[in-house]
Write a structure and sequence with these properties.
Helix content: 40-55%
CATH class: Alpha Beta
Shape: globular
Radius of gyration: 20 Å
Number of domains: 1
Number of strands: 11
Number of helices: 10
CATH topology: Rossmann fold
Bound molecules: adenosine-5'-triphosphate, magnesium ion
Distance between the termini: 66 Å
Largest sheet: 9 strands, mixed
């Protein structure tokens, strides 16, 4: 290769890096008006991460917070479906793409809004990461109190790379199931958060026992309670457990968070506790990060 070719290649690389930097700066600028950002992660898929995300969002919106949800799960974007927003169109304008308005005025953005139905996401490697960076940089959130981010499942390269694009988080919520409560999974989630400088808000144990809708008796389908023990051992907070509740699945099918559709259900009652703990965490964080001069 000639020296000119090498120089041209170097210039192209520099240009690409510059573009990436600009996109990340743009992303951070667009997210800077959001007071609190919380990522929801899990050690593996199918444990209820999206369920926790949408219901936490609904609960905070019910309390009067301005809430947004970023569905950053590129392979299984399910937030629009869980909120009855599938197929909605995203409005775009000069500043970028505007989130879709969901129930309780939730501001929702998902890659799902840009994908034709039934086409799996088959992007690979750098192409995919570039597209995601651009997608994230374009979103016009406006003023929000809380943004909840549903990251792809697992603690591998993909959720890590996506999380690295995002600005600093206030904290991360780890969703887990009684069956996967091995110390390795919790440790992996903790390592993941640490690598990203994200404080851990706590662990939620989902599908922890089944409460019979007829008689109210709790049956331990999987051995529950491990979440609390594991959280204690790992030195992170335990936020609460959510029982297996048929209304959760039924509401998901209907595109309604159970916190809205079935506020009296066993799941909603249990979840209220989780919401309270997250709210306390955010309030404490606000006080701790206030500048010295503002403290009373
Ligand atoms: N507590 C619960 N009781 C009953 N069903 C539940 C409960 N939590 C979640 N589900 C159901 O389990 C399935 C998986 O939940 P969800 O989609 O929230 O998991 P996820 O961790 O986001 O999955 P993925 O890794 O695919 O993104 C859904 O069908 C959901 O309705
Ligand atoms: Mg999900």
């Amino acid at each position: 290769m000639s020296t000119t070719d090498q120089e041209n290649q170097l210039d192209a690389k520099k240009q690409k890096l510059l573009e990436q930097r600009q996109q990340i700066d743009q992303l951070h600028a667009k997210m800077s008006k959001i007071k609190h950002k919380i990522a929801v992660i899990s050690g593996k898929g199918g444990v209820g991460k999206s369920t926790v995300t949408v219901n936490l969002a609904a609960a905070f919106a019910q309390k009067g917070y301005k809430v947004g949800i970023l569905d950053a799960d590129i392979h299984g974007p399910s937030v629009p479906r869980l909120l009855g927003l599938s197929g909605k169109e995203v409005k775009t304008g000069p500043p970028g793409a505007f989130p879709v308005n969901g129930p309780l005025d939730l501001k929702v953005m998902s890659i799902d809004f840009f994908l034709p139905e039934s086409v799996p996401t088959i992007w690979r490697g750098p192409l995919k990461m570039g597209a995601i960076r651009q997608f994230l940089a374009e979103i016009v959130w406006g003023d929000l109190d809380i943004l909840l981010i549903d990251l792809p499942p697992g603690t591998g390269d993909e959720p890590l790379t996506i999380a690295q694009f995002l600005p600093e988080m206030d904290g991360v919520i780890v969703v887990t199931m009684p069956t996967e409560l091995s110390s390795t999974i919790v440790k992996k989630a903790i390592t993941f958060a640490l690598r990203l400088n994200m404080p851990i808000i706590g662990v939620v144990e989902n599908m922890s026992g089944f409460i019979c809708p007829h008689c109210g008796t709790k049956t331990e389908i999987f051995q529950s309670g491990g979440g609390k023990k594991m959280a204690e051992e790992s030195g992170v907070a335990f936020l609460g457990s959510l029982p297996i509740d048929p209304t959760v699945g039924a509401d998901a099918q209907q595109g309604k968070p159970f916190m809205i559709a079935h506020a009296e259900s066993a799941a909603a009652k249990a979840f209220t506790d989780v919401v309270q703990k997250v709210e306390t965490y955010l309030k404490q964080r606000e006080q701790n990060t206030k500048p010295e001069t503002n403290r009373t």
